[in-house]
């Protein structure tokens, strides 16, 4: 009598057959897209030296700590919209900026970031933003 319980996502997919409700199908597609984005892994920068990778990790930690402090001041239900109002862009757009622009927008003191100028033209994931 050892029954396996079905996965919740499998149940929600099978509740409606294809084409029965356009609204629910749109919600399901949106949920799938969010799930795919959240499980995607960011690639490690391959062309950076070990010291630059360590520096990038330190800068990421400082940025993430600062963002956490900013976001905890906002009510949970309004975090994304208030972030966009305060900084003029969403968090996803912020992560695409070069680190020097990101630090400037977040008003993080560069003195907290040692040797920051070496990686200032990289984005959050370590890719060069200068062509």
Fold topology:
Elements: H1 8-14, H2 22-39, H3 50-72, H4 79-87, H5 91-94, H6 99-106
Which features does this protein show?
131 residues, mainly alpha, 2 domains, 53% helix, 0% strand, extended
Classify the helix fraction into a percent range.
40-55%
Low-confidence region ranges: 37-44
Radius of gyration: 20 Å
Total number of beta strands: 0
Notes on the structure:
The chain contains 6 helices and no strands. The chain is mainly α. The chain has 2 domains: 8-39; 50-118, no CATH class. The longest helix has 23 residues, at 50-72. The radius of gyration is 20 Å and the shape is extended.
Short structural description:
By secondary structure, the protein is mainly alpha-helical. Helix content is 53%, strand content 0%.
């Amino acid at each position: 009598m050892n029954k396996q319980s079905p996965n919740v996502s499998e149940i929600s997919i099978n509740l409606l057959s294809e084409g029965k409700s356009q609204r629910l199908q749109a919600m399901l597609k949106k949920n799938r897209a969010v799930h795919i984005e959240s499980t995607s892994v960011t690639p490690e920068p391959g062309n950076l030296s070990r010291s630059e990778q360590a520096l990038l990790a330190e800068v990421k930690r400082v940025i993430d700590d600062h963002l956490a402090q900013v976001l905890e001041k906002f009510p949970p239900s309004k975090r994304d919209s208030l972030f966009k109002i305060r900084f003029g862009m969403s968090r996803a757009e912020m992560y695409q900026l070069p680190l020097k622009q990101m630090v400037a927008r977040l008003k993080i003191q560069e003195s907290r970031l040692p040797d920051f100028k070496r990686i200032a033209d990289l984005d959050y994931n370590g890719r060069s933003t200068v062509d």
